[in-house]
Amino acid sequence: EKFFSKSLALYIKTNDEQQIAWAWGALGISKWVVSKFSEAMNAFENAEQLFKKVGDTVDLLGTYYCMKMTELESGHYAQSLEYTFKGNDLSGGVDYKALGNLYAAIGDDETAEKYFLKIPPPVNEDERYWQYLGNGMRYAGKRRFDSALHYCHLFSYYAKAKGAGPLIKLDESMGNLHLAQK
Fold it and tell me: pTM of the full predicted structure?
């Protein structure tokens, strides 16, 4: 967070809007991962405006992903859905996983499962392992804790090999699983 803030200040001096947008996005991610959700959204909104201005749809799509996840994790489901639709409109596709996660978060497991079943099979090992974590959390939501632990255990192999980001998500998920088990 400290270094992305410094980076942003330096890029602002250059007037390079593409790099300024990137720095805002990076700062937003650094705030998101430590649960500073309102500060993260502020940074993402700045990135969004600049990515639109410079016509960078790839990074704009990534920003919408970060925005929808930030809103989802902070319990703002309607806003998360809004950014999911913005991303869908921009990509021309449908983010079935995001829609499934949103319906699962509000407790509509039947609709969530319909969206989860539409998720295409993973195309690479990274996607497969992240899908394990998603499966684990879905089983946790259904109070099928043995299955949830099994999938989290499968994800743990990947997380240990890949480092901080996946390990943080594993720890967060295991914490949520233990809370659900009381």
Answer: 0.71
